[in-house]
UniProtKB/TrEMBL annotation:
This is Helix-turn-helix protein. GO terms for molecular function: DNA binding. It comes from Actinomadura hallensis. InterPro entries: Cro/C1-type_HTH, Lambda_DNA-bd_dom_sf. The lineage of its organism: Bacteria, Bacillati, Actinomycetota, Actinomycetes, Streptosporangiales. Coiled coil: none annotated.
Length: 166
């Protein structure tokens, strides 16, 4: 793993990289830093540090997934830090669309098909399997999405609706 080849880059280079990363993230439809992190980019905290110009010597473990999600060729991260421009591949991967509930698309087993959280985990790339920081970011994003959708009183379990039978 490389640490940007041991080169020191001035703060303005990191700020420029941050602006370009943010612009590209938005171009690709990632509405938030968390959405980029949740779909295979670096962790939310790393994406935030890079976009705000507070990034510092990252290893390929961070750089390569970021370049992949932004649709950049290998070496683009370093090229931007050195004053160049990122080189885009032909097509960048778009944010994943979540299949409709219960649609069965994606060959989900029945116990997974009806739950967006389980479908997301089912579809996660194997590269995420050992990365606790990414899973924490993913879980946080999914939990926030689930909390933002209000539940109808009729959907609440009987014990909650009756306040424990009181």
């Amino acid at each position: 793993m490389s640490d940007l080849d041991g080169r020191e880059h001035p703060p303005e280079a990191w700020r420029r990289l941050g602006r370009i990363v943010r612009q590209r993230r938005i171009e690709l439809g990632f509405s938030s830093q968390a959405s980029l992190a949740a779909e295979g980019g670096p962790s939310l905290s790393v994406v935030n540090k890079i976009e705000t110009g507070r990034g510092r010597d990252y290893t390929d473990r961070v750089i390569i997934p970021l370049e992949d999600r932004l649709g950049w060729r290998r070496g683009s991260f370093r090229a931007v830090l050195e004053g160049g421009e990122p080189e885009c591949v032909d097509t960048a991967p778009a944010p994943a669309a979540v299949p409709a509930t219960g649609s069965g698309e994606g060959n989900y087993p029945p116990e997974v098909a009806g739950d967006p959280f389980l479908r997301f985990i089912w579809d996660a790339p194997a590269a995420l399997a050992d990365d606790e920081e990414k899973w924490a970011a993913i879980t946080g994003v999914l939990l926030r999405r689930m909390r933002s959708a209000p539940r109808a009183l009729d959907d609440a379990p009987e014990t909650r609706r009756n306040a424990g039978g009181i």
